[in-house]
Amino acid sequence: MTSLPLISVDPDARGRRPAMPPCHLADLDLPGRQALVTELGEPAFRAKQVSNHYFGRLVRDPAQMTDLPAATRERLAGTLLPTLLTPVRELACDDGATRKALWRLHDGSLVESVLMGYPDRVTVCISSQAGCGMACPFCATGQAGLTRNLSTAEIVDQAVYLAGVAASGAVAGSPPRLSHVVFMGMGEPLANYSRVVAAIRRLVAPAPEGLGLSQRHITVSTVGLVPAIRRLASEDLSVTLALSLHAPDDELRDELVPVNQRWKVSEVLDAAWDYADTTGRRVSIEYAMIKDVNDQPWRADLLGRLLAGKLAHVNLIPLNPTPGSRWDASPKPVEREFVRRLRDAGVSTTVRDTRGREIDGACGQLAAAEDRDSDPRAATA
């Protein structure tokens, strides 16, 4: 069994909260934005105008907000739309259908987002934390540890920025409109619960309140924080829950997903089934296929027994190994046998389309590469 990691604490940092970014209109509901605008001495309806530019037109450049008085454009935009994400790297592969963005936040933290274009939809994968505290050993983000939670607006701004990329027509062969958002980037979304739920409400509210996406096109991933799963079920949201299971037995899951030492497989699945019963939404069971670790036929059979008859779908993920990692992807014949056994048990199963291997596509890989490149010690290592 792997114990939860001990995290060293800087004595000078005790009691010190991470510096959060400046307030952005996406942090506020429309009345809150109106109150902020009136504090500037402007009429309240200016908040709606700026919000329409940001969420409706995907515009943040004051020069393009021609319905605002020229004398106040810069001040309004500067107050309501402070810069939250500064692009560090933007890489593309799959003939431009997959684009990964690495952002630097106001405090120097790095986070990642991925845009994926398909013939019938455009999906973005966004981060909810800088780093992650869940310590899953096969995940690049988990290896880096947690820096801080993202603000609501830092989460939303990733989706809005990439919605603008889609709207520009840059993703050939895909619709020019963002339609799906998955919280599967850096971080454990349910460990930043209140801001993630607020971000979801911004993403699904119609403009000018928000981006106007369908709740059913939002997916929230979790390693299995049971109290937060139950709380999410009470939010009156129709988002999909994705449970990162990765092992059907407690002995292995204690190692692969250390939070399993707190909430065992049976507890996590009970919470997931309660979520499905409450929302009517099928739960996605995420399962990274790791060579000689969790891909044995008997584990496929056990997983099949746990899921048979449940409102669930298994999403098998060919592992995208991180540099220097001892973990590797399962061979294709092993993967196919795993799929066969699950389907024979009556469990709906697919294998995730592998995207972004050429651009450090796995969660945390691009940020880790940037840290290595910017570390002066790396040049002499």
Give structural attributes.
381 residues, alpha/beta, 10-stranded mixed sheet, two-stranded antiparallel ribbon, 12 helices, 12 strands, elongated, disordered N terminus
Percent of sequence in beta strands: 15-25%
Average pLDDT, all residues: 90
Structural class: alpha/beta
Number of strands: 12
Description:
It is a single chain. With 381 residues, this protein is α/β, with parallel strands linked by helices. It is built from twelve helices and twelve strands. The strands form two sheets. The protein has a ten-stranded mixed β-sheet. The longest helix has 16 residues.
Task: Present the secondary structure layout.
Blueprint: H1 30-39, H2 45-56, H3 70-80, E1 86-93, E2 98-104, E3 110-118, E4 121-125, E5 129-131, H4 140-144, E6 146-149, H5 152-167, E7 180-183, H6 193-204, E8 218-222, H7 226-233, E9 240-244, H8 250-256, H9 265-279, E10 283-289, H10 297-307, E11 312-318, H11 332-344, E12 348-351, H12 365-374
Parallel strand pairs: 4-7, 7-8, 8-9, 9-10, 10-11, 11-12
Antiparallel strand pairs: 1-2, 2-3, 3-4, 5-6
Helix pairs in contact: 1-2, 5-6, 7-9, 10-11
Q: Could you provide a short overview of the structure?
A:
The protein has 12 helices and 12 strands. By secondary structure, the protein is an alpha/beta fold.
